[in-house]
Amino acid sequence: MTGKTVVLIFDDLPGLYDVAAERLVYLAKKAVAGRGRFCLALSGGGTPRPLFERLARPPYLDQLPWSQVALFWGDERCVPPDHPESSFGQFNQLVLAHLPAPPGQVYRIRGEWEPAAAAADYTEQLQQAAGSGQPWPRFDLALLGMGEDGHVASLFPGPMSETESSRPAIAVTAEYAGRPARRVTLTPPVFNDARHILFLVTGAGKAEALAAVLEGPPDPARWPAQRIRPAQGLVMWLVDETAARSLRQLRGEGG
Ligand code: 6PG
Description:
Helix 1 (13-35) crosses helix 2. Helix content is 29%, strand content 19%. By secondary structure, the protein is α/β, with parallel strands linked by helices. Residues 43-47, 75, 77, 87, 145-147, 151-153 line the site of 6-phosphogluconic acid.
């Protein structure tokens, strides 16, 4: 665990998601005031749904400067955007469909394309979004979840490929929880350039991985969430009691 990591443990899920929404709004306002836009990378899966539902209704709906938000995805399953398993589709249904006007920019991973083509296209989108010859924008916030196997985005356990450190977006194939296996994911260099990372992790099924990632020895091949170590950014973990039940040091147990 790096020095720039904060872990907050909640005994109530509504409280966790309220803090997540408040943090997102705070970072959005700060980014827009400082740089004129808020670059936000979103995750998929079930954990962020209550957060997305909050963003689609007052007070957060009205607090976010949507016209100055640039939306990205940290990963995407290679399915059409209207597919029930699409991460874009989930956010579109829960949030975008409820906005009075679209966000400033939406950089969607083209899940309907072949993975390699979608990864190449997203690499170009990232470069375009960054401008001034940079390969990707520096995200003001990257929202991340974690799988029960410790995966993050679509970076799964196993030897890290060369492309994972040399390219901003890559195609991967991985079986997890019966979800679409063909994916496109951003890579650690992009996430680790972010100003802020916000992990949302809930549920007893995540307890072993969370303890290994936060308190175990460094083993990023086995625990991909350990690959997220931003050089300058702050990593905040919002976790519930059940996911935190195997933590020791962070709970002041075990000396
Ligand atoms: C996805 C996410 C993935 C997710 C974890 C946790 O495409 O599903 O990007 O990395 O965050 O698999 O998923 P849950 O939140 O559903 O447990």
